[in-house]
Design brief:
Blueprint lengths: L1 H12 L5 H27 L16 E2 L7 E2 L10 H51 L15 H19 L5 H4 L9 H11 L10 H12 L16 E2 L8 E2 L8 E3 L48 E4 L57 E2 H5 L2
Antiparallel strand pairs: 1-2, 3-4, 5-6, 6-7
This protein binds calcium ion (4 copies).
The site of one calcium ion has 8 residues, from loops.
Length: 375
Amino acid sequence: MVNSLFLWERAAVRGEATMADLKSEIANFKSLTAAARVIASQKAQGWPSLGLRRRAVPSTVLCPLPSSPLRPLPSLPRSGFTLVELLVTIAVIAVLATLLLGALYTAQDAARAQKTRSTIAKLHTMMMSRWESYKTRRVPITIPPGTQPKIAARMRLDALRELMRLEMPDRYSDIIDNPAIIARPSVSHAYLRKVTSAPAGYANDHDRAECFYMIITLGADDDDTAADKFGASEVGDADGDGLREFHDAWGTPIRFLRWAPGFVSELQTRDPSTQPDPFDPRHVYPTQPTDPAPAQTEITFALYPLIYSAGPDKEFDIYGGEASFQYSGAKNNPYVGLIAPNVFPLGQIGATVDIPVNGEQNWQDNIHNHLIGSR
Ligand SMILES: [Ca+2]
Ligand SMILES: [Ca+2]
Ligand SMILES: [Ca+2]
Ligand SMILES: [Ca+2]
């Protein structure tokens, strides 16, 4: 009202307002004042008199405004997620994360497999040159004059097998046990010193791997730097006994079986007709049925040393013979197992088996030199 009178005064000064206009403004003021009094009175008695019920208010925000005493605020855009939307989002993220991790894991395993193949390829090359040398190796044995040629050939072959066993041991009994046919070769003395001087004494854990490390690093008379050909990650001591092993890229010791007649591969087909034993050119084995067991039932064929990684699953599932087995007690027979099922219930050494039993054939992801050597 004060504002209206001020505007009327200014209009009057400019000659634009009349006394009638002033009276009209005063009348408006009186009616507005009366209306204000009514509102104040009703407010003092409580809002229900305005026709609004307070209990109906909560879900709607009411706000008194000059032009309209109470009215709802306009509804705001909905923010946040519903529970279903949240769960769907989490599920999608989980699937994407799984796919990504799977891809990363696969790429990492592929790189590790390649690194392991490289390590085994080096070992295979070093091993095979030595292996081939036994075809022409002079055997330290004296054949009595007058011995039948075939008997002499068998004596020589038995001695050669013992020489291979002593110089390429794959279990500690090959080192610890005294030779039966020939004198202990010089490198076997080196193995024996190494094993018996191990700080904590040798443990049979990882013996297939520890013997192999000694063969490669001590077995070559003219190569004292064999160990230098391998990086730090390719060598380790998994059981902490001071006797080292070559490791694959998953940190598992790489094992070695000098003779693995149970293993079937492109390199070792186990077919006597197409791959006869090259160390037995006179075919003195298998022997005649009149010969004493167990030799009479054996089947011979070309053998290759087996150098193998357990692969990504770190399980070998390759039969290495019973823990108590000693070659010296089996006449250095490389084909043992086929002929003594009571001693080797799981077949020949090198056979693929589920040990320890977990229901999985864990040999399938193994990386081995037969795969590399056959290419
Ligand atoms: Ca050990
Ligand atoms: Ca060790
Ligand atoms: Ca495996
Ligand atoms: Ca298994």
